[in-house]
């Protein structure tokens, strides 16, 4: 039986390994982590992350061929293939601070693999890493190899939070990069054999290591760029009376452009887009390409601008001050169907409003982390959040917000009652009929 171990039981390691175990009953999968609470949660009925469909997949194979453990060394020792899916945040100090990826966790995982291994291993980069990381990992492993053969593969993950299980069951592509040597090809084939259990052959792409590593950064940069492009247009729409949804529809029907990922919003968030673009910027700078770095920086600049533009719109619409006014925040996660609030635009919007002394009452369908709860007032119900409020700000596109009884909300709010829709989820005209003053991103403004 092939044995797989994944170091890192987070948003990527947990779901990806659960799906491998589900689809490959002949493979034993161990997901390991240094975090005791995280592993306990994976072994309980309250999984540490919320993803539609994840519970069923985990329950189906847990303790059969899927195991969650803190005994990192034992499972690495036993594995034929070791995935590394640890966090790779932006460095906060030292060389490259604020841009470069912090590979501390990765390096310590690699050193641990070298320490405990007694048999040949395929080591798979699942985390998003800078291009050429495999070269560094190879150095660490081979200099400590004790005669063991390591093959490093890059197999970046393209799942999107909120649709992770769907994406993993039916991926657009699986990308595997390896060394172009006989051993490298053999390792690529071994990983291909795992995915071939359910992914059609033509969706498994193989490339050299550096192309695979760079493709992940490139894909996230392109996705974020699309959001910043439509958001930049949304500002122009508001200034001219054009409607960004109509413009996006007209633009997206061009088959060269396509309709997806063209929704204007308060801005992108999540733990990946900004971090990966900063990483790309740093790599460009290190490779003597400042013009290319500048190009990608603009994607983040527009995203920051969109968030501050939204806050300014709220404050200016509410007679230039939100001091001591109750503002209901509906949605805190960075997108719907996830409990993940890392780098969510809601943080910047809330900070902006708090800076003007607003009183915030926050509701998100997913429970907020204890740290967030300490800083802001969180409630368990949209109606409670909006009671006596002067304004409602929608910051996440949760489906349940579309179904709210806005007449009831209006009746219980201070007047004039404002709605600031940062995701264009509500029917602005219906809300106007009720009596709300409505601002929707990129749409013609109320008179
Ligand atoms: P995460 O923070 O949720 O999980 C990482 C886990 O690794 C943590 O639980 C941490 O305790 C564990 N860890 C760190 N060092 C360890 C060690 N030495 N031994 C054992 N465990 C260790 O992160 P994530 O969101 O799952 O992201 C992981 C990687 O995947 C990142 O590089 C990220 O950029 C990339 N990625 C994330 C997404 C996403 O949607 N979250 C999508 C694609 C790729």
UniProtKB/TrEMBL annotation:
Keywords, ordered alphabetically: NAD, Oxidoreductase
Q: Provide the protein name.
A: UDP-glucose 6-dehydrogenase
- Could you cite one Gene Ontology molecular function of this protein? UDP-glucose 6-dehydrogenase activity
Q: Which gene encodes it?
A: UGD1
Q: Which PANTHER family match?
A: UDP-GLUCOSE 6-DEHYDROGENASE 2 (PTHR11374:SF64), UDP-GLUCOSE DEHYDROGENASE/UDP-MANNAC DEHYDROGENASE (PTHR11374)
Q: Which organism is it from?
A: Salvia divinorum
EC number(s) per entry: 1.1.1.22
Cross-referenced SMART domains: UDPG_MGDP_dh_C (SM00984)
Which pathway is this protein assigned to?
Answer: Nucleotide-sugar biosynthesis; UDP-alpha-D-glucuronate biosynthesis; UDP-alpha-D-glucuronate from UDP-alpha-D-glucose: step 1/1
User: Which residues of the sequence carry a binding annotation for NAD(+)?
Assistant: 8-13, 33, 38, 86-90, 127-128, 161, 272-275, 342
Active-site annotation: 272
């Amino acid at each position: 039986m092939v044995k797989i171990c994944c170091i890192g039981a987070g948003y990527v390691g947990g779901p990806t390994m659960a799906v491998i175990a589900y689809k490959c009953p002949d493979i034993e999968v161990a997901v390991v982590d240094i975090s005791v609470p995280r592993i306990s949660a994976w072994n309980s009925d309250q999984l540490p992350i919320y993803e539609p469909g994840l519970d069923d997949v985990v329950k189906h194979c847990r303790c059969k061929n899927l195991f969650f453990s803190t005994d990192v060394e034992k499972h690495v020792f036993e594995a034929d293939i070791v995935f590394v899916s640890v966090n790779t945040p932006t460095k906060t100090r030292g060389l490259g601070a604020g841009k470069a990826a912090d590979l501390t966790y990765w390096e310590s995982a690699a050193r641990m693999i070298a320490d405990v291994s007694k048999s040949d291993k395929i080591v798979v980069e699942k985390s998003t890493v800078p291009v050429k990381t495999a070269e560094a990992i190879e150095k660490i492993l081979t200099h400590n190899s004790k005669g063991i053969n390591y093959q490093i593969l890059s197999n970046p993950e393209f799942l999107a939070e909120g649709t992770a299980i769907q994406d993993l069951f039916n991926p657009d592509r699986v990308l595997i990069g390896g060394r172009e040597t006989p051993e490298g090809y053999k390792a690529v084939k071994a990983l291909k054999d795992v995915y071939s259990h359910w992914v059609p052959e033509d969706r498994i792409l193989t490339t050299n290591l550096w192309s695979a590593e760079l493709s992940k950064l490139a894909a996230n940069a392109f996705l974020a760029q699309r959001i910043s492009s439509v958001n930049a247009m949304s500002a122009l729409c508001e200034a001219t009376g054009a409607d960004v949804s109509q413009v996006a529809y007209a633009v997206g029907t061009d088959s060269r452009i396509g309709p997806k990922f063209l929704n204007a919003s308060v801005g992108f968030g999540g733990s990946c887009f900004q971090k990966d673009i900063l990483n790309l910027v740093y790599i460009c700078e290190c490779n003597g390409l400042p013009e290319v770095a500048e190009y990608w920086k603009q994607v983040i600049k527009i995203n920051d601008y969109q968030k501050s533009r939204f806050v300014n719109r709220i404050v200016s619409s509410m007679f230039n001050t939100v001091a001591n006014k109750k503002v209901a925040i509906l949605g805190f996660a960075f997108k719907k169907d996830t409990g993940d609030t890392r780098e969510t635009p809601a943080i910047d919007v809330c900070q902006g409003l708090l800076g003007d002394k607003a009183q915030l009452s926050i509701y998100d369908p997913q429970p907020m982390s204890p740290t967030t709860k300490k800083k802001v007032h969180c409630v368990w119900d949209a109606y409670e959040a909006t009671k006596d409020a002067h304004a409602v700000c929608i910051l996440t596109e949760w489906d349940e917000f579309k179904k709210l009884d806005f007449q009831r909300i209006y009746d219980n709010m201070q007047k004039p009652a404002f709605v600031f829709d940062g995701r264009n989820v509500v029917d602005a005209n219906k809300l106007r009929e009720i009596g709300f003053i409505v601002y929707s991103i990129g749409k013609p403004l109320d008179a």
